[in-house]
Amino acid sequence: MKLIVGLGNPGREYDKTRHNIGFDVIDMLAEDLGVANFREKFQGLVGEASIGDEKVFLLKPQTYMNLSGNSIKEVMSFYKLDPAEDLIVIYDDMDLPLGQLRIKVKGSAGGHNGIKSIISHLGPDFFRVKCGIGKAKRREETVSFVLGGFSKDEMKEVEPLMEDAAKAAKSLVTAKNIDRVIQKFNKKK
């Protein structure tokens, strides 16, 4: 059993923003896996599916980004899952160029408040699928940048990025060799 989490903020005002790319990838996965509806549970929206022989839960925490760990910990505890083996988190990363994907097995939060929250509840060992959203031109524009939407031109890079993030998550679920999956998806643009 695996848990695939997409990070984002609930509410229409955050829909389709850079910070919510994790939610968008979960929606893409749900459609691909035939998840018809999500139910409210564990302070989030949860869908169930299978990838290969593995049962998978898709989660969009509804706690707001900075408290994502609260929702994820509830699911992990309830199903007695091991973060190092069973947790895959998909989220935005400003330190990666727009459209670039990076899988990491563990590490620091890198300034991402959602990841900080998860680490504070579960420790640093879990799979991360980082989606490059680029950087704001000036530091003081960071909040409006991450809470802003992608332009039409940017979407040409973002749509394939989201498809790759969904494929990467599925590959991590079924992988016999994690290093091969990481090598496949972490190639430079």
Features:
single chain; 189 residues; Rossmann fold; 7-stranded mixed β-sheet; 7 helices; 39% helix; 24% strand
Task: Tell me briefly what this model is.
The record marks 9 as: Discriminates between blocked and unblocked aminoacyl-tRNA. With 189 residues, the protein is α/β, with parallel strands linked by helices. It has helices spanning 21-33, 68-78, 83-86, 113-122, 142-146, 152-174, 178-185; strands at residues 2-6, 39-41, 44-51, 54-61, 87-93, 101-106, 125-132.
Folded structure, characterized:
By secondary structure, the protein is an alpha/beta fold. The chain has a single domain, classed as Rossmann fold (3-Layer(aba) Sandwich), CATH 3.40.50.1470. Helix content is about 40%, strand content about 25%. It has a 7-stranded mixed β-sheet with strand order 2-3-4-1-5-7-6, sandwiched between helices. α6 (about 150-175) packs antiparallel against α7 (about 180-185). The longest helix is centred in the C-terminal third of the chain and has 23 residues, at about 150-175. It is globular. The mean pLDDT is about 95.
